[in-house]
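User: Um, any thoughts?
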Amino acid sequence: MVLVNKAPIGWRRLRPRRLVFTDIDGSMVSYDGRVGGSAYYARLLRLLGFLVIPVTAKTVEEVVALRNRLGLDGDPFIAVVEAGGAVYASPGFLTRPTSYDHALGLDYIEVGEPLERLEPLLEEIASTPCSEPLYRLTKAPPRIAERMTGLEGFQAELARRRRFIEVYWSPSRSCMERAAQRAEELGLTVRYGRLLHVGKGYGKARAVELLLEEPLLHGTPTVGVGDTQLDEDLLESVDTAVIIPQTDGRLLARPRRTDYYVAPEPAPEGWVHVARLLALGSL
């Protein structure tokens, strides 16, 4: 069953005024799921000619399920998912798609290696000697998947449907550190925060660079919005970088640039503030 409508005839002639590449959790939406005014301002930005593109660690199924709630329900559908593991878009948008997802009705580009090709290496990481269990999200029992993701029921199930990035978690930080070290020894790409993201060849910045090669987007000014270390490569690759602080005011994202803008509040209020500035032409 196709879950995303095809883009309307003529949409390819509409060149965006500006591209807003935004993280979702902790940036556009609070970690406890509050959207606040983000959906309203996402729709307002679209009316003003901005194109808001999620760049998230979520799966494509999660983004599809969330797009109405986040105000991202306008065509075309474009999203960077699984921390830059793949780019999904409405049919006809991508000039060189890798393949087509028949269930979702979306074209996509593989940025990272599919997990099925990495399975022996991923299992070797899962076998890292630990004092506590080390879980893989794609194979975790429902209860553990909910604990890893902070989601419940069907939402946690959507988060498990990963194709490009495996996520590991253990109650033991030393266990996760050993697993991260083993993944690096095996030549895999590792992002380490509260969870351990492991894949090969993935990256938010790399996925954004591929998108910017598309004729409709090439040369368009870019904004990047993020809140953690997972967003640093994205923030380093855009024209205007925005950091959303944590609820305690800390900045977890530290890109290798000094000209970033720091929102005055955490998500979602900080994202709303940034959207207002963009709408007014003040950022």
